[in-house]
Amino acid sequence: LSSEIDIGLQVLDRQLLDKNGRRCGNVDDLAIEGGVGEVPEVVAILVGPGYWPQRSGLIGKLAGWIGGGRRVRIDWSEVDKIGAAVELKGEATELGLGRGDDRLRPYLDKIPGAGR
Amino acid sequence: VSKILGLALGILAAIGGFVDIGDLVFNVSAGATFGYELMWVVVIGVVGIIVYSEMCGRVAAVSGKAVFDAIRERVGFKAALGALVASEVVNLMTLAAEIGGVAISLQLLSGLPYRWLIVLAIVGLAVIVWVTSFEWLERIFGYGGLCLLVFAVAAVKLTPDWGKVGNGFLPHLAQNNKLLYAYFAVGLLGAALTPYEVYFYSSGGIENRWSPKDIRLNRANAIIGYGLGGFLSFALMITGGALFLGHGISPEHLGTIALGAENPLGRIGLLFALVGILFAVGGASIDTVFSGAYNLAQFCGWEWGRYRHPRGAPRFALTWLVLLALALAIVMTGVDPVMLTEYAVIFSVVALPLTYIPILLVANDKTYMRHYGNGRFANILGLFYLLVIMIVALAAVPLMLLTNVGQN
Fold this sequence. Notes:
The complex is a heterodimer of chains A (116) and B (408). Chain A is an alpha+beta fold and 116 residues long. Helices cover 24% and strands 26% of the residues of chain A. In chain A, a hairpin with a 7-residue loop joins strand 3 (29-33) and strand 4 (41-47). Chain A starts with 6 loop residues before the first helix and ends in a 7-residue tail after the last helix. Chain B has 408 residues and is an all-alpha fold. The N and C termini of chain B lie far apart (49 Å). At the A-B interface, strand 2, helix 2 and helix 4 of A face helix 5, helix 13, helix 14 and helix 15 of B.
């Protein structure tokens, strides 16, 4: 990781990629720890519509509810690189990301031509 | 040959954006109402969309970032969610209008009942998109739409007063009917800069796997594609002016537009016009349905893209299928497609600033654009067009109300 990054601009609301380059969510929020007098530290990336209500008011609640309200917490140590996207060290499925696509795939596969 | 085929993205984005059902009617109506007096507005619109398409295509080629990705990153969750809702509503309205346009052109070609043809249009589009690669979608609908060049032949055959046409390119105000003139100007600018063009164009660059070495291809696509779109706009406006001005005819139906080619060129002209309209509104359906799916997927961070195939991007595929189904429900109510698209154009200008400001910011971000970032020329033009967009966005709804949607 580069020595200095702006987490508000370069991490928050950025595309997440797993180690295979699969798009597997967006940085919906960040978990920051540190009490009074301590240096605050980012400990995790928070992913999923379940975190949307805390980002915005009524419309965020509604969107989060429509989105199913799933919450996934990715430990900061999983972050590999921060560039145009935030790249992770592991695979999406192992981290619990991209589950909606994985669950829908078997149904679409029943329609001929889904793999081309 | 591969170089010409490489321009398909720009041509499809431009034909779908410039000569979709709304523009066909809007351009010919502008000609029928004001002659050639609004040509200069089209020039401003064409240059603006070239500037911003080039920018967002360059961002896509260098960083792999499409427009809605950039919107969320730059304006934050809350404003991006607002932009998402607005763009989805406008995209769906436009999609429904284009599907209606496909059904109308099929009806004019075949004579079968309109409602059957709506279903046929939706099922046909769904099957074509499901089985066809992105490259072939671009080629079929982009190059098929070129049949509309018949309107350029028609415009010449109608022997317009070329001196007056030339004067139309000089910016000026109308002597009378100023409000209606302003409404047409705002509508033409709004239609030229419709947000779905940049959503589709930038994501299309990624569909085509553009990399930094395709920067020149991107520039050629933006200039030639939208230049051609603008050329077709001129041809339609001249046809409308030469044929309908002063006769009290205001073309409000796609069939009337096609008559613009039949009058000077006969049945063959009519056939080219109808086939061209069919491919252009079909291409616009593809632009809008994909834009809707791209935006949602990019906002949520889902896998997306036709190049992934449905099984590689399942939620993206489901999104465009659902959008087609919703569009079917809307057109089946019998709502007038042309009216729907006029409202869609006017409302889309409200979403314009939230779309174009992030593109300008991202294209200046040296951290991942490196030396491919905007030069001074692109930034000056970009800022000028932001000003134009702000004016258009503020004026659109009041003008729509004051002129009763251009009916007075």
